Amino acid sequence: MKKGLSPLIATVLLIGITISLAALVMVWGQALFKQTTEDTGKSAQAEINCISKVQVDILNASCPCIGPSCPGPGGTPINLLLDNKNEEPVHGMIIRMYGASGNVETVTLSSAGGYTFPLDAFNARTYSVPYTVAGGITKVDIIPQIKLDDGTLRACGQKIDTFTLISPNLEGGCS
């Protein structure tokens, strides 16, 4: 006589294993779906805040020293007068400086880097930004950053403001 599982017991075991695996997949899928929706919600809220509550303008960009007698790149910073024209405090800035020779330098300003932030709503402040762009700066872009609920900074890439510099000695900007 052969000994083995009866077809009824084998069927019950297969159904039990199938139900267990389905439950595991559902729990995993639910956690994944919940995390994805939370991340999407945070991202959407940050985008809404960037679009509707952030507006930072460069009122002025100047170099204290322009011309051949200046210390050169890295010696004299560019001074940016930034104005927060809306209700969201700005907690950082990404500054892009374009050189006359086509090179670009990016500097991130934050309170961790020793800069005074936040730039509160409806306030203006001057920031001195060191640069190493050789040949002079001709244009400056700023990208404001807001703080999310979890404390991370989010760049508002659609809120770029640009300022074009023209030096009195026509050297193309800060040099």
Report on the structure:
The protein is of the alpha+beta class and about 180 residues long. The protein is about 25% helix and about 30% strand. The protein has one helix at about 5-55; strands spanning about 55-60, 80-85, 90-100, 105-110, 125-130, 135-145, 155, 160-165. The strands form two sheets. Strands 3, 4, 6, 7 and 8 form a five-stranded antiparallel beta sheet that branches. It has a three-stranded antiparallel beta sheet with strand order 1-2-5, with no helix packed on it. The radius of gyration is 28 Å and the shape is elongated. The relative contact order is 0.18. Mean pLDDT is about 85; it is low at about 170.
Task: Offer a few descriptive terms.
5-stranded antiparallel sheet, 175 residues, 27% helix, elongated, alpha+beta, 8 strands, 3-stranded antiparallel sheet, 1 helix
Q: CA-to-CA gap between the ends?
A: 98 Å
Task: Spell the H/E element sequence.
Answer: HEEEEEEEE
Structural category: alpha+beta
**Major sheet size, sense and barrel closure:** 5 strands, antiparallel
- Tertiary shape: elongated
Into which percent range does the helicity of residues fall? 25-40%
